[in-house]
Amino acid sequence: MNCNNDLIYKIALTRIKGMNMLMARLLLESFGEVREIFSCKQDILQKVSGLQSPVFADDKRQKAKEQALKEAEFIEKNKITPLFFTDPDYPSRLLECVDAPLMLYYRGNADLNVSRIISIVGTRHATNYGRGFCTEFINDLSQIFPESIIVSGLAYGIDIAAHRAALQAGLQTIGVLAHGLNTLYPPVHRQTAIEMLSHGGLLTEYISQQLLHRGNFIARNRIVAGLSDATVIVESAEKGGALITAGIASGYSRDVFALPGRIGDTYSKGCNRLIACNQAALITSAEDFIDAMCWERPLKKEIQPSLFSEVNEQEETILKILQDKGECQIEQLTIFTDRPAPEILASLLELEFKGLIQAYPGGVYRRVK
């Protein structure tokens, strides 16, 4: 690969110690092109930047270019998309964050600038309650806004539950990594990560040559928060990475939501505290979330069962009840229809097979919206 390639200079800029978005903007305004930063004299760079430290020394800039050359070769070989902060495809939401990465490395097919992106994070010790909420929340969201993207950190617990629920619901999902794209942690999530490459993607600020460090996991939380319109905390103990993400999201003036839990539950204490301190809004469903975000729902075409020849009179009655009530259990439907349970169950199975209703945990049935 040609050493004069602009990509090499862009990567090299990120390898200069202490380089950040504000400094990079200042230098680019002064020099015009990134490559000029590596060709001008050290004293000029120090004067423009106001830094007197040796970060712009010739040997340090040369070392940064050498690292960048290796990374550019890795990028080309593995079909990775580099996103410099001046590129049009760089996530526009992140540009609003003062500590956004200068460069992102991306493998996937999702548009990182779609109109609706939601981050869902939580404890690594997810309970059935938390996982169930992820599944229901994301499934319901997909019915109303099928172009939404779900972002999380591909970690154990709530993160991986959110990614898998998104894949199951047909939504694209982005995993923000705390390491380069040459590896995957935790490795047990590799199969899910592979699926995400064609239904979302993997995103990181780290080059392949960087060692995995525990501090990276905290640093990547700012990308999870900054990449999205809102962050949903599903479960968290009194301390944890999810609460850090909530604080970062709030600092970015993003909406923060939390799922409440019982006061004695260890992994609901963090969420309950966020809600009690007005650091997060309480939500229990996708409908709550959509209303709080003031997202205008698309116009729905009313399903008219009577137009479907395969829907009989009893099935049509059940659909009307579910439309009016929102959801029902079998016992309730037997009362509303005055029909025996086996007969109602048979009708429910037929309606589910036809894709007109969906079954949920607890024996609850709802119409497909």
From TrEMBL:
Smf/DprA SLOG domain location: 83-292
Pfam families xrefs: DNA_processg_A (PF02481), WHD_DprA (PF17782)
Annotated InterPro entries: DprA (IPR003488), DprA_WH (IPR041614), DrpA_SLOG (IPR057666), WH-like_DNA-bd_sf (IPR036388)
Gene3D superfamilies: 3.40.50.450, Winged helix-like DNA-binding domain superfamily/Winged helix DNA-binding domain (1.10.10.10)
Domain DprA winged helix: 311-363
Name of the featured protein: DNA-processing protein DprA
Assigned protein family: Belongs to the DprA/Smf family.
Top-level taxon: Bacteria
